[in-house]
Design brief:
This protein is an all-alpha fold. The chain contains five helices and no strands. It is globular and about 70 Å long.
């Protein structure tokens, strides 16, 4: 009986007492949307077709096959160039948000369908 009461208490606490931010979706894909990456980039392999496509930017469906963590850190912080150009916008999120975005980008390894 005590175990059942404890289990019910844990469930109640988890659902109603803990702050909602604990359950918030903070995946890299969500950060990709929130930070405006979708204004320029697509990830067609995941059904992300961009919002307005402000400029011709690469599809990132297979970026995890092309680049590593070191490259992403430097490029998104505008410390190195790709094809003679630095990334247009410097990432302005927290370190935690950046890491989640980076991990999600590195997981993208499916070339977009042509």
């Amino acid at each position: 009986m005590k175990v059942a009461t404890l289990a019910v208490s844990i469930v109640f606490y988890s659902l109603f007492v803990l702050p909602s931010s604990v359950f918030a979706d903070t995946s890299g894909e969500k950060i990709f949307h929130e930070k405006g990456c979708v204004k320029c980039h697509t990830v067609k392999a995941h059904g992300i077709n961009g919002e307005k496509k402000l400029m011709e930017s690469p599809d990132l469906s297979d970026i995890g096959l092309k680049h590593d963590s070191d490259f992403l850190v430097k490029y998104l912080r505008k410390k190195i160039k790709l094809n003679g150009k630095k990334h247009l916008k410097r990432f302005k999120g927290s370190k935690e948000e950046y890491k989640k975005l980076e991990m999600w980008l590195l997981s993208l390894k499916t070339p977009p369908a042509q």
